[in-house]
Amino acid sequence: MQEYFLPQEDPAGGDAKREREEKELAEIEQMTSLDKGDLRIVMPQELDSTDSSDWKQYLKREKLRDAWEPPAGSPFAKYEKTKTINSVEFVASRIKPRFSEYERKCVNEISNLIDRGEAGSDVAIILNSGGVHSVAMAAEFAQKAGYQPISMLNSIPLSNGSVSSAQGLAALLYNAGRINDLKRKGKIKSDSPPVFILDLHRTSKPALSGQVDNGYKLNESNLPSFEELVSAGIKKVIYVDEDDDHGIIRPRDYPDREIYNDAVLPTIKKWKQRGIEVFSQVYIHMMMIMIFLVQSRIQMVLQIMARKIGTNTQMNMQTTTRTQVQCKSCSVFG
To answer: How many whole angstroms separate alpha carbon 177 and alpha carbon 142?
Structure first.
């Protein structure tokens, strides 16, 4: 697992930036060359968010970076992470855009949040969900409220990685055309409020034999300082993560669970201590509902089979307890 202590300013200028990028590309090439497995994109799409096959042009890393990088002059541009985006052409033959019912659900909830008037020019958004869902929600903030997305996804997509970052990359592909159009039309501007795209599972460690650790941590310097937020006119932060809330995004007390094991939550707490309002929102996608429906259908089929063969098989109904279910792209609490 990697930990990032990047300076907030680059005193060495372009040379240091190029050197960092060359080092990053070499690492991506090395790791992806050893991995030829199926990336198992959930509900891959043939068309993207613009209802076209233009997503194929974004299989080039320069094109994908151009689409997602913040507008020129943005004070938040230096916080963009590029490892996941730069990986795209190294896995181009194994990836397609993703947009599933899970993303549709959370996008609808974000739309409702915006309609309630909770977003605005003085409100920054932190999306700390599964990477794929954070991307989908960020695209909705951009489309409907003019936010500038800041991608913090920094994991190399691997078929056997501890972080399922290919799902987030697939969502970046799906939404690239839409984000690029919004920038070109001037709806995303350098002074637009930021929406930071984080992956809830960025610190995940290998849990199965053969898995590769492609996780990472974020340091305090990877997020804006209190002074930078205030200078950009930010007075309020909405923090969105996943929890058991029956599919609804709503306010709750600020989370105190430190399950991410990096500096994101402590940094946000410092903002709050110094006077920025912080509101936490929670959401859960439909995976648990689907799991329940599948389990119920299996139980029903087994009961019918038992009756047909004339047995007195007693079906032991499993009692559901609160547990964490790990899916391909996010954690779900049921």
So the answer is: 12
